Recover the amino acids of this structure.
């Protein structure tokens, strides 16, 4: 990654919410394309079995429905988190 690319990542992070996540995804994309962005975001987000289950369930739902509004998916993930938290 060049100095200019790194400065671009910092500039993007400053103007958006969630600067650490945005910068992480952007740098992952610059280094290894879409797969790199997905990998670093997953590594940062999936920290235990519960978050892995939420990610897996969300992924399966996205594969089956194709067109689900983001707020609905977020609500479903939150509901999964509340249910799975009881089994922690």
């Amino acid at each position: 990654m060049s100095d200019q690319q790194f400065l671009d990542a910092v500039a993007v992070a400053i103007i958006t919410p969630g600067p650490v996540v945005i910068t992480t995804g952007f740098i992952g994309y610059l280094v290894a394309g879409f797969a790199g962005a997905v990998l670093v975001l997953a590594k940062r987000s999936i920290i235990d079995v519960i978050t892995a289950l939420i990610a897996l369930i969300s992924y399966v739902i996205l594969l089956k429905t194709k067109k689900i509004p983001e707020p609905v998916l977020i609500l479903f993930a939150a509901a999964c988190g509340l249910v799975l938290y009881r089994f922690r």
About this structure: Residues 19-45 form the longest helix (27 residues).
